[in-house]
Amino acid sequence: MTKQIKNLKQFSTSAERFEGANDLCPGCAHSIIVREILNATESDLVISASTGCLEVCTAKYPYTAWDNSWIHIGFENSSTAIAGAEAMYKVLKKKNRLPNDGGRDPKFLAFGGDGATYDIGFQWISGCFERGHDMMYVCLDNEVYANTGGQRSSSTPIGASTTTSPAGRVSYGEKMMKKDMLSIMAAHGAPFVAQVAPNHWKDMVKKVQQGFNTEGPVYINAMSACTTEWKFPIDKTISMSDLATDSLAFPLYQIENGNKLTITYRPKKIIPIRDYLGAQGRFKHLFKKGNEHIIEQWQKDVDEKWDYLQRREEAGV
Ligand SMILES: Cc1ncc(C[n+]2csc(CCOP(=O)(O)OP(=O)(O)O)c2C)c(N)n1
Ligand code: SF4
Ligand SMILES: [Mg+2]
Q1: 182 in Cβ contact with 175 (< 8 Å)
Q2: In what order do the strands lie in the sheet with 107-113?
Q3: Is the shortest distance between the CB of 227 and ligand 2 below 6 Å?
Q4: For residue 101, what are the contacts with CB-CB under 8 A and spacing of at least 6?
Q5: Is 53 in the pocket of ligand 2 (CB under 6 A)?
Q6: Where exactly are the structural domains of the chain?
Q7: CA distances from 29 to 34, 91, 227, 259, 315 (A)
Q8: Which pTM value belongs to this model?
Q9: Vertex 256, ends 312 and 74: CA angle to 5°?
Q10: How far apart are CA 136 and CA 139, in angstroms?
Q11: What is the CATH number of domain 8-315?
């Protein structure tokens, strides 16, 4: 059953499965995204979370911020924890060994950071998608290993200064391009993959609801602005997210069944990438003499990706 959402007030107060009483930094986008996802559905949920800011800051024994069943196993395997729960549920149901559930099957939802998703838990996620578990995997993509002090991950974009790709006299920061996780997950033939951002809550709700109504593995890549590691003021999380989606640093789109691509947000006015980069301390060295070529490369890459997405959408593949 799809939850009817009338307006933002009803949406933001309609479910309390994730408490504000947690240790995430003020302004952390992780908590906004989690609340948006949980509030998008009325279904019973079984949730797992990998080690990372979300888990560490919401489950300090003996406290929890989760008013929901919730599993933590390790950094790399929130995906397999939830896949195991889903497989067990299916078997118990088949054997008629579940208490009467009134016909309400729960949904199975896994959260992981980009370090847990793009890098260390990747093979486990890939296995879950290959086996076709009926689950949703959400990556809280803040483009850095935030919880352990800001090391680069394969989601960290070029030019970002992190503790393991520091900018300085001999380096402009991260050398590699951000890994294209959405294409990789779509290439698994997943029935539904999508990028979301917390500033576009209606788009988020639509995609989360479509994801929960889809049978099989669903991947959601959620842009999660990190005030601490991106280095911007704590009251700018949503305007930072606007800069990301309006500069197309983080385009919003979805891919169904590995091929049908749909762009879900077209900025009325596309802003230059330098406005996005200039608002964050992690990129401030790019504005120094000698590093301008990285900003130019960023702009070129973003333009090319946008052209590519539009061509694919037009072609219906
Ligand atoms: C196998 C393993 N390797 C490393 C760690 C240490 N560790 C815990 S959280 C973390 C960083 C998490 O980064 P990410 O997944 O991006 O989540 P974020 O904290 O950024 O939300 C690391 C490296 C661990 N707990 N287990
Ligand atoms: S370090 Fe970043 S991701 Fe972690 S709690 Fe703080 S703002 Fe959130
Ligand atoms: Mg991270």
Answers
A1: no
A2: 69-71, 45-49, 107-113, 136-141, 218-223, 192-196, 253-256, 260-263
A3: yes
A4: none
A5: yes
A6: 8-315
A7: 9, 36, 8, 30, 34
A8: 0.98
A9: 115
A10: 10
A11: 3.40.50.970
The per-residue pLDDT for range 3-58, each reduced to its tens digit, is 999 898 888 887 789 998 999 999 999 999 999 999 999 999 999 999 999 999 99
> What would the pLDDT profile of 181-226 be if each residue is shown by its tens digit?
999 999 999 999 999 999 999 999 999 999 999 999 999 999 999 9
**Residue written as tokens 């009803």?**
10
Q: Does the Cβ of 56 fall within 6 Å of ligand 2?
A: no
Residue in 228, 230, 231, 232 to alter for ligand 2 test, most ligand atoms within 8 A of Cβ = 228
Helix residue ranges, H only, 138-282: 181-186, 201-212, 237-246, 273-278
CB atoms within 10 A of CB 45: 19
Which ligand has the nearest atom to the CA of 56?
Answer: 1
Is residue 229 within 6 Å of ligand 2 at its C-beta? Answer: yes
Contact call for residues 206 and 228 (beta carbons, < 8 A): no
Q: Which ligand is nearest to the CA of 115?
A: 1
Q: Which of 20, 28, 21 is nearest to 237 (CA)?
A: 28
Q: Are 291 and 233 in contact (CB under 8 A)?
A: no
